[in-house]
Amino acid sequence: MGNHFIFSDLIKRYSVDFTLLIPSEEGSYDDLGEWVPPEPTKSDERGAIVPLQSQLIYQSGGRLTSMDRQLFIKNEIPLKAQVLFDGATFDIEAMTPYGTYADFNSYILKAVINSDGLQQHNTNSLGTD
Asked: What is the DSSP track for 12-45?
């Protein structure tokens, strides 16, 4: 049975470019025996990234804020991945799989906050300027 609802045209209309960082499972040791953490796999993607609804923020009990976002995309993304968008870094925190009923998945993007309580910007992340 196919999808009941087709949203790909709507998602495509509101899609933006973003960078997806998928964590690698394995690190390695260098010639001196020092641990070298794994480099994430980087890919350029497109999806609809929108602000969270006020009701969702309210119902989260303070876990979600107005700095967090929601991503609508056709692809499946692992939960520990990160999204680099509009100068900010977001962790993929939760997925709502609509695949049984529609042609997309929804993800909650949690803004990465530094120790000063400010949103982490990725201006020099992975050698990008």
From this structure: HHT-EEEEEEEPPS--EE-TTS-EEPPPPEEEEE
